[in-house]
Amino acid sequence: MNVLHEKGMRMSDVPGNRPHESATCAFCRIIRHEEQASLVFEDSLSLAFLDQRPLFPGHCLLVPKEHYEILADLPASLVGPLFQNVQSRFAGTQKLFPMAGSRFHQTLVQP
Predict the structure, then answer these.
(1) Can you tell me the distance from the alpha carbon of 74 to that of 37, in angstroms, rounded to the nearest whole number?
(2) Which phi-psi region, left, alpha or beta, contains residue 5 (left: φ > 0; alpha: ψ -120 to 50)?
(3) What angle do CA 52, 49, 102 make, to 5 degrees?
(4) What does pTM read for this prediction?
(5) How far apart, in whole angstroms, are the C-alpha atoms of residue 42 and residue 44?
(6) Where residue 45 sits, what CATH number does that domain have?
(7) Which of 16, 49, 58, 93 could cross-link with 37 by S-S, CB 3.0 to 4.6 Å?
(8) DSSP notation for 34-48
(9) Of 25, 26, 21, which Cα lies nearest the Cα of 36?
């Protein structure tokens, strides 16, 4: 388990750690436009882009614009709006790439 999570802290609680300041987070680099990505959606809350190594046609990733280590760190007030964006992107992607369903996936990486 993440040491910060055990202490009830998020990365943004650590002094000097503001949203998008993770130098090692690929998603933060995409949000800061330091890495190229094929954007399919952007609003004030999130960014969606095509996966560089898609598992299937139309495989998109939607990430919050603020850096959260794990889903449990996402404030409850953002869960609904973020998943409304997920639902909206699925509907748009479904029109371009007909598919049988969708999948939500969170990957945890050990430091």
Answers:
(1) 23
(2) alpha
(3) 90
(4) 0.68
(5) 7
(6) 3.30.428.10
(7) 49
(8) SS---EEEE-SSEEE
(9) 26
Output the tens digit of pLDDT for each of the chain's 111 residues.
444 445 555 555 443 355 446 778 889 899 988 999 999 889 999 999 988 888 877 788 899 999 888 888 889 999 999 989 888 877 766 676 666 666 666 666 655
Tally of domains in the chain: 1
CA 57-55-28 angle, 5° bins? 100
CA–CA dist 86, 25 (Å, integer):
21
Asked if the structure places residue 66 within a domain, the reply is yes
- Beta bridge partner(s), residue 87: none
- Say if 102 falls within a structural domain: no
Domain-embedded: residue 103: no
Query: How many other CB atoms are found less than 10 A from the CB of residue 14?
Result: 11
